[in-house]
Amino acid sequence: MTEKPDDKDGIVLTEAQKRARRSRSIAIALSLFALVVLFYVMTLVKGPIVLLRPM
Amino acid sequence: MSLISEGAEYRGPVESAYAEPSMATVGDYIALLKPRVMSLVVFTALVGLSVAPGAIHPFTAFTALLCIAVGAGASGALNMWYDSDIDALMTRTARRPVPAGRVKPGEALAFGLTLSVFAVVVLGLLVNVLAAALLAFTIFFYAVIYTMWLKRSTPQNIVIGGAAGAFPPMIGWAAVTGSMSLEPVLLFAIIFFWTPPHFWALAIYKTKDYARAGIPMLPVVAGDRQTRLQILLYTLLLAPLGVAPFLLGFAGPMYGVVSVVTGAVMLALAVQVFRERAPAERACRHLFAFSILYLFLLFAVLLVERGWGGLLIAPFA
Asked: Looking at the 3D structure of chain B, how many domains does it have?
């Protein structure tokens, strides 16, 4: 007899794993946002010479 | 549409490398960055950045320190990835995220490599190329030269490897000036010669740990007495080197007094380590603890006396 798998037959995360994944995802999002802010503010700080990169 | 063909028997989830989803928390990833080591790196880089001549915009200074911190953290993650086998054998390191099983080795490697690339590229784009090149070399030196090669192959591991911890003031200096001179090299030399007495004092009272892990630390390979002699010799070099910034006119009288007094205490503790009968555990603990204070005081006085001048607001600098 063929048994059709339902969704629960794949990898099912426990609540703790879901919490850990969610906290990691939030941390990655915050890091990327911080990187965007860093480049934005540096552009304001340096002005047009942001394109010049001295040694 | 079902992916299971008619007549085929479903056998449940496929066993694969992904069968166990990661339980790593953000805290585990922060632990991979070795925050305590990172704080010392940031502090010494701040001093290098502050005593450098010329002006740097505070936001550029902040960006440089952030990149140096992330680069240092990346080195720590790569170190924990490669050393997870020996970390599991030592009481001091067994609870680190990788040997404890909370972070998989591959995750630590990916984390370390990603942060390394980001730290170097951002420092190069937003500050300057020399500072970025020095940071890249520091990460390479710590992760490859020290961790992968020297640590397991020679008792001189922490002597040569100590250079990795000595680079941050030079990176800070380069972030401001875009060049090198004698002053940052002197700061490099102080940390370089400070590292052996600092680590060997720890290694003496952790000898069993290192021996169990098969790491050829000097006390394991050459014995307790030879290590205590080496501690004394390196401290004899370190104490006058600590005073050198004052003697060469790079630092003021306050630095002169502090470096002479703390250097004398370092020397006295090293003599005590050398003279005490084995195992000189108590004397080694004293030397280890004071060595941290010694380095902190030297750099803190430099920061107070010479520092902050480089952190002048200079728009478009």
From this structure: 2
d(CA B102, CA B27): 10
Q: In this predicted complex, what is the ipTM?
A: 0.79
* Residue B115 and residue B213 in one domain: no
Which pLDDT tens digit goes with each residue over B56-71? 999 999 999 999 999 9
**Full-model pTM:** 0.85
- Measured between beta carbons, which residues in chain A are less than 8 angstroms from residue B13? 9-11
Rounded to the nearest angstrom, the minimum Cα separation between B128 and chain A is: 5
* Residue B229 near residue B205, CB atoms below 8 Å: no
The Cα of B196 is separated from the nearest Cα of chain A by a number of Å equal to: 33
Q: Are residues B201 and B292 in the same domain?
A: yes
Residue at B20 is within a domain: no
C-beta atoms of B18 and A13 within 8 A = no
Nearest chain A residue to B129, by CA: A55
Give tens-digit pLDDT for B133-146. Answer: 999 999 999 999 99
Residue ending a domain, choose from B129, B162, B178: B178
Q: Does residue B289 share a domain with residue B154?
A: no
Q: Which of B162, B178, B194 is the last residue of a domain?
A: B178
Give the side-chain half-sphere CA count within 13 A for B206.
20
Give dist(CA B180, CA B240) in Å, integer. Answer: 23
Chain B interface test: which of A45, A49, A51, A52 (most B C-beta within 10 Å): A45
Residue B201 to residues B93, B131, B231, Cα–Cα distance (Å)? 17, 32, 8
Give the domain extent around B155.
26-178
Q: Report the CATH number that the domain containing residue B37 is assigned in CATH.
A: 1.10.357.140
Q: Which residue of B has its CA nearest to A16?
A: B23
